[in-house]
């Protein structure tokens, strides 16, 4: 199946990841002290998570499956559909937690966590897209 909506969303996800890679600072201190970087990185991380959630919802809808009650449950459904590994789904579910904190300001953002994510965990989103290539 060649879904143009999902493909366009994947392009947007790639753009967010590339923007993060272009702007990620070398040090945590630089991130903590640079509000412009904080804005650029947090917004693009939020977008990456939201786009992943949106893609998941589209896939679930196309398959006629009952959606979950939360954004994170969509990733669990993709595990049941044998699209994602359980390990990747768990990582993506954690990203929804970051998105909620960032968007709704439930608590202050932990910039050390953001620094860790942008330097060591962007591959989760790339792995997500790779897993989808066989089903879209």
Order of helices and strands: HHHHHHH
Secondary-structure class: mainly alpha
Task: Assign an overall shape.
Answer: elongated
Classify the helix fraction into a percent range: over 70%
What is the alpha-carbon Rg in Å? 15 Å
Q: Tell me about the largest β-sheet.
A: none
What percent strand?
A: under 5%
CATH superfamily: bsu32300-like
Q: What is the total tally of β strands?
A: 0
Report mean pLDDT, rounded to a whole number.
90
Oligomer description: single chain
How do the helices and strands line up, and which of them pair or pack?
Elements: H1 4-23, H2 28-33, H3 35-62, H4 73-80, H5 86-104, H6 111-120, H7 123-133
Helix pairs in contact: 1-3, 3-4, 3-5, 4-5
Report on this model:
It contains 7 helices and no strands. It is mainly α. Helix 4 runs antiparallel to helix 5.
Question: Any key phrases for this structure?
Answer:
Four Helix Bundle (Hemerythrin (Met), subunit A); 7 helices; elongated; 136 residues; mainly alpha
């Amino acid at each position: 199946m060649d879904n143009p909506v999902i493909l366009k969303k994947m392009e947007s996800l790639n753009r967010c990841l590339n923007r993060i890679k272009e702007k990620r600072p070398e040090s945590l201190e630089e991130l903590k002290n640079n509000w412009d970087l904080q804005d650029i990185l947090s917004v693009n991380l939020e977008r990456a998570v939201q786009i992943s959630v949106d893609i998941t919802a589209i896939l679930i809808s196309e398959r006629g499956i009952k959606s979950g009650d939360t954004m994170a449950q969509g990733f669990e459904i993709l595990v049941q559909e044998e699209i994602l590994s359980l390990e990747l789904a768990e990582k993506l579910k954690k990203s929804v937690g970051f998105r909620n904190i960032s968007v709704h300001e439930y608590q202050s953002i932990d910039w050390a966590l953001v620094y860790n994510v942008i330097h060591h965990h962007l591959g989760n989103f790339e792995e997500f897209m790779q897993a989808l290539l066989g089903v879209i």
